[in-house]
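Entry for the shared binder. Reason: the reviewer on the internal report wants the predicted structure included alongside the sequence.
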Amino acid sequence: MRTLLRRLVAFGVLFLLLFVLPSWPPLRVRLWQPLVMDSEAPQGEAAYVLGAGPLTLHERLSAAAELYHRGRVARLVIPSDPTPARSDPVSGEARTAESWARASLACLGVPGNRISTVTVEDGALGTAAEARAVAAAFPNVRRWVLVSSPMHLRRAHLAFTRLLAEGVAVTPVASSAVADGPDFHRPLWLEYLKLAVYAVAVWR
């Protein structure tokens, strides 16, 4: 009976530490903070918008469009995605993810001739695959601005700085404040685990 009670207490403490306390917003912001990177004055030749689901991607596209309109970058690059899973923001008709992203940027005032795409191969390490695709497609770009969700930027910046050519500058820009983004409630441990995997596995 005592052994069972000790196990239940240990399980309760573990549940409190791993799930209950990290769900408290003020503490969660602090726990996310080591993963966050941002720049107050980003400047580059082009901005790459990392791929994501519709809600998160719209947030990233909005941040990238703002960079374009502020004259921080001259071109936006998005991943090419043929998945027919999204509705056009104007007509409501089904579109591929890529055409949906282009239409969203058009609604945000970005000219079509200022948007480029890059084909990303499927892989277990998706962010690293995006970095490799960008490196291969744009070898002459020496200054990139990287746009992603705040919690994803540490891992994305690691992948891009390691996989782009030596000497290429990569400036991270968060698409929202830490607590405002749609990814804020994702499992903390999962992002830290992914960061650890990238730190070991991702090299040129």
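Summary line for the report: The chain has a mean pLDDT of 84.
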